[in-house]
Design brief:
The chain is mainly alpha-helical. The chain is built from two helices and no strands. This is Transposase.
Length: about 45
């Protein structure tokens, strides 16, 4: 298990953003949503 949570770096986000961002306005930060999904995947919570 991981004891610390590491957020995406800016360079990692730039790569992922090109894939997931469709240009729509959002109420939540898409980067935080991706971070949360990665955290769930890493921890199995």
């Amino acid at each position: 298990m991981y004891e610390t949570h590491e957020n995406l770096t800016d360079s990692q986000w730039q790569v992922i953003k090109n894939i997931v961002d469709d240009g729509r306005k959002r109420k939540v930060c898409l980067k935080r949503v991706v971070d949360a999904c990665l955290w769930l995947t890493r921890t199995g919570s």
